[in-house]
Specification:
By secondary structure, the chain is of the alpha+beta class. It has a single domain (2-115), classed as Beta Barrel (Lipocalin), CATH 2.40.128.120. Helices cover 18% and strands 62% of the residues. It is built from one helix and eight strands. The chain has an eight-stranded antiparallel beta barrel with strand order 1-2-3-4-5-6-7-8. It is globular, with a radius of gyration of 17 Å. The N and C termini lie far apart (47 Å).
Length: 117
């Protein structure tokens, strides 16, 4: 019986911690190194509603909406459309950062964004 309560308590702690970590709502900023070697400063403003991820992505070229956003556990995906071209993003949630991959028409770039003030 004691083993059952210990297991249940640990499981509840894990679920609470995971729920706190998984909320990526807010502003995240970083730099993408594009396939041509140039740096692109980006800011993502995420809104999470259950498993739905929405918001905007901002760069020197302007602001675009986040489309088809999904979040499941510590993984998420979305796309942005820039001048008629979709750029799919996939990512993983960490306690202090988000690791993302963006597909530039078959060439992938990996980058990290951190919570912005």
């Amino acid at each position: 019986m004691k083993k059952f309560f210990t297991t249940t308590a640990l499981l509840c702690c894990f679920i609470v911690c995971f729920a706190i970590i998984a909320d990526i709502s807010g502003k995240w900023a970083g730099t993408i190194v594009a396939t041509d070697g140039s740096d692109i400063a980006v800011t993502y403003n995420f809104k999470v509603d259950g498993e739905k991820l929405t918001g905007t992505a901002d760069s020197p070229q302007g602001s675009v909406t986040i489309d088809d956003g999904k979040i499941s556990g510590d993984a998420f995906s979305f796309k942005v459309n820039v001048s008629g071209t979709d750029y799919p993003h996939t990512g993983k949630i960490y306690a202090d950062s988000l690791a993302m991959d963006i597909d530039f028409g078959g060439q992938k770039a990996h980058f990290i964004v951190k919570k912005a003030n």
